[in-house]
Design brief:
The chain has about 110 residues and is α+β, with helices and mostly antiparallel strands. The chain is built from 4 helices and 6 strands; from the N terminus they run βαββααββαβ. The strands form 2 sheets. A 4-stranded antiparallel β-sheet has the order 2-3-5-4. Strands 1-6 form a two-stranded antiparallel sheet. The radius of gyration is 14 Å and the shape is elongated. The termini are close together.
Amino acid sequence: MKTMKLVELAKTIRSKNAGTDRITFDIIFRDPENYELVKKSGVLNPKFIAELYGIPESRIAAFVEFDPGYAIKFTINRQKPSGSFGEGDVFGCQQYPPLLDIEIPVE
């Protein structure tokens, strides 16, 4: 089965602060074809995201496939509030790299 990395299919993959207690992730596509390909593959889902990040699925606050924007978004609850002692990414902007190499079936 032929696959492509998510980073090759998406226009934007990013993470960012979503308040003091959450980080949100955006996977945005240029065109409906790549968006539908990834969406229909079923690879990206809350269970997979939880396994990828080594967190319980209960920490995923939201998982949305947003058809009008060709985007998949999910939000996770932080273990510690943003900026608190021992919290390593105040802006949540360094959490997306595990998403880049996800293999998506294309055939």
